[in-house]
Amino acid sequence: MTGAHEVLLETERLSVSFGGLRAVDDVSLALRAGIVTTLVGPNGAGKTTLFNLITGHLAPHAGSVRWLGRRITGQPHWRIARAGIGRTFQDLKLFDHMSVLDNVLAVTERDAWLWQRGGAAGAAQRLARAEAALQAVGLADRRHARALDLAYAQRKFLSVARLLASGARLWLLDEPASGLDPRSYERFLALLREQVARGCTICIIEHNLDIVVGISDRIVFLDQGRVLAEGDPKSILSDPNLAAIYFGERAA
Amino acid sequence: MLAYLTNLAVLIGINAILAVTLNFVLGYAGIFSMAHAVFFGVGAYTATWVAIKLGGGLLLATGAGMAVAALISLALALPALRVRGEYFVAASLGLQMLAITVFSEWKAFTGGIGGITNIPPASLFGFQLTTPAQYLVLTLACLAAVIAIVRALVRGSFGRSLKAIRDNETAASTYGKNVAVIKTIAVAVSSSLAAVAGALYAFYMSFVNVESFVLDTSVLLIAMVVIGGVATLTGPIIGTLLILLLPAALSYLPGLPSTEIGSIQQIVYGAAMVLLMIFRPGGVWSLRRREGDPR
Q1: How many CA atoms are closer than 13 Å to the CA of B280, on its beta-carbon side?
Q2: Tell me, what's the ipTM?
Q3: Which of A9, A101, B24, B228 has a CA-to-CA distance to A199 between 20 and 30 Å?
Q4: Would B274 be classed as within a structural domain?
Q5: Which CATH architecture has domain A1-84+170-180+201-252?
């Protein structure tokens, strides 16, 4: 694939061990622009660890990560974030004691100095971006509530609003649909589709097979830190061996 | 009586500056510093040195104190802020202990244990400040300026960065915030503003020695912030008032033998702290504020 589907992020033989356990073992994969890739696999397969290696929360013992052709392995995560890679966490990691609006506004303000560049015009632009992100996830009317006081689904949407406002080009979503009721979940899928249509590239860790089928262009199946298979959703999900591994049975 | 009250008011103002500036890092950034009294001391000694050796006025002396305090805070912050919370507590405690030794031993600069006496009165635009009332006005003006600076910072983007780091450091850096730099700047701002209190104190007392800048002072300042209410603008001032007025009020309580006042103060302090933390864990002011919060 070329042109519209250029490779944004590439991992090359990425490995990390915790003690004797190879959590991610020789993983090479490419995330292409405009393509939704889903990482599936049983618990402990190394999916979140792979995210942590990509975003710089963990340093690999071997291998490298390339973003737009440039090696980003070993860079601090704030720098990787600024390059355009955003993520959510299973435990959301919201700024709990800040307002909903401030949660989103904070991610648009990246200068470490006492004030942000761009003056009043820049501030107005960032505020507009934050407001638009809240509008997109349906949280505009809760902008003054504390993040801590939101319902669970709203907290999930807030974590997505932060990502939206951050302007990240690649979204790494760690189990974004877990715990969502059917209506929120439909809304969430629609939001993701809209973002993909706008040129966003998404990589999701997900156990919900409806989501996997509903949105993925490509599935990467991980087990015990290794890529067992990758391909389109139909072929991967219809493979009885992979299903057996996924559901904890022995492969035939 | 008026002289006593003016003196108390000046000391409350100076301590309020320290509490407000400590709250800037402790309350808003979640950086628990046990060394705030060090920067108070650095401000006081530097201002004294500038006033005596260079004949500098209030502005020069205070500015020099702020600059030196900021530089020393960088020496603490740069290595210590790369690691998480509890290590900074240990590092700041280390700095506090080290500073006490330097303050007591570096006789050429600090006068040693005996300190420095006869500090000339502060001069501002050729005008000499000599009476406690003049110092009260100056202290309140400085307190107002410090509150205005802290208020502007915490309500703006920098404050949002600090609060984001305090609430979730991992998320803050994941979204592109350079946590180490932001924390370092916060510590430098807090320390240099604390040095303003040091300069005021030196000129007002016309005497400084190490006793004012020991660990007890740092702990007392933490108590002011925590009791008053962390991460609020008014909380630290309320905390300062409570902590400094309580002993004053107890001294005037009839029927207390003067020899026992010290230990009674300790008991009242301790009991008040414990009860407050049980019933109002966010501090006096934060609870008031939360009641009025729209949910």
Answers
A1: 19
A2: 0.90
A3: A101
A4: no
A5: 3-Layer(aba) Sandwich (3.40)
